[in-house]
Amino acid sequence: MTRSIKILGTGCPKCKTMSNLVHDVVKENSIDATIEKIEDIMEIMTFNVMSTPALVIDDIITIKGRIPSKEEVLELLK
């Protein structure tokens, strides 16, 4: 089953770091996933997220306002 991953962030350095980290984890572990970067503030607000970056996996907000470790992202995707 393909996982749906959304990275919410306006393009700040932390958001870019999280985006790169998630891409690396998916690639390194051959995870079947689609990754979407959402930078539009109005769209981000539909998730009721006030602090970015945020990580949404299969429409569930898993992390917000901080950059996770690779291990944490991998655990969330398992």
UniProtKB/TrEMBL annotation:
Gene3D superfamilies (alphabetical) = Glutaredoxin
On the tree of life, the source organism's domain of life is: Bacteria
Q: InterPro entries of this UniProt entry?
A: Thioredoxin-like_fold, Thioredoxin-like_sf, THIRX-like_proc
Q: Which residues form the Thioredoxin-like fold domain?
A: 4-78
Question: Pfam families, from UniProt?
Answer: Thioredoxin_3
| Matches recorded under NCBIfam families | redox_disulf_2
> Mind telling me what this protein is named?
Thioredoxin family protein
Q: Which organism is this protein's natural source?
A: Flavivirga jejuensis
